TrEMBL record:
It comes from the Bacteria. It comes from Pseudooceanicola antarcticus. InterPro entries: LTTR, LysR_HTH_N, LysR_subst-bd, WH-like_DNA-bd_sf, WH_DNA-bd_sf. This is LysR family transcriptional regulator. GO terms for molecular function: DNA binding; DNA-binding transcription factor activity. The keyword Transcription regulation applies. Belongs to the LysR transcriptional regulatory family. Residues 1-58 form the HTH lysR-type domain. Keywords: DNA-binding, Transcription, Transcription regulation.
Amino acid sequence: MNWDDLRVFLSVGRLESLSAAARALRIDPATVGRRIARLEEETGTALFAKSPQGYALTEAGQRLMAHAAKGEAAFLAGAAEVAGQGGPGLSGQVRIGAPDGVANFLLPQVCASILDENPELELQIVALPRLFNLSRREADMVVTVSAPTAGRLLVQKISDYHLHLAATEGYLAQHPPIRALEDLGGHRMVGYIPDMIFDKELDYLEETGVSRVQLGSNSVSVQFHWVAGGAGLGILHDFSLPHHPGLRRVLPETIRLKRSFYLVRHEDDARLDRLNRLAALLSERLRAEITRQEGLS
């Protein structure tokens, strides 16, 4: 069985598309199709179910995927060792997936500090308000707001963090005073679009008793800019508050939420020393940055 064919198979299996795999591998889609056809002929079975929606792995394809992914991890580990990536400095390209709150307010400065010490490293931040699929290699490691309980994953807790209801001084001066939870009814609320909350840990407003969100977005960044612009009240990360000095906590003794961040990787990556070292460094720097910014807020 040809390793190049397996590499193409892995890409199609993860991306569920010949054209997407071709773009990722930088080869012609027809070549991808021929490689898959050759692999299916060699194995004597269909590895994909083809439909207008794309290429879905068959049961046989799923079994081969598990073995091919292990082979890929072993190959990458060997390549890293031969290239000296187990040495003092980190190198190579690593993609980090994260909710956009982390991606906007924490990861930029953390990644920059890591690159200052490891100039041969290439870090990519994918900021998406949804769950990532590590088996399809959408990212090498992911920051999440809850610990996954299923799948072949490595999960480590990074840190707790806190959130408060907040508004600008200007908004608070121009609207009725807020002395208790029941006073929130007369104010415009900023929050998540209810049916687009991808993790129950993000359903912040449920804890305040607020049922109506007048300005809603699936993006933490959009919510932050609405609140920072004086458009209303919203639950914001404490680590985001220093980014706009005019923001003030509202009912801080009543509304104080605590959540946690986790770093998640695919189990097969445990043998990759550079990813182990980067994961440890990333967790340490994120923890320190959360503590620093929460102290400033």
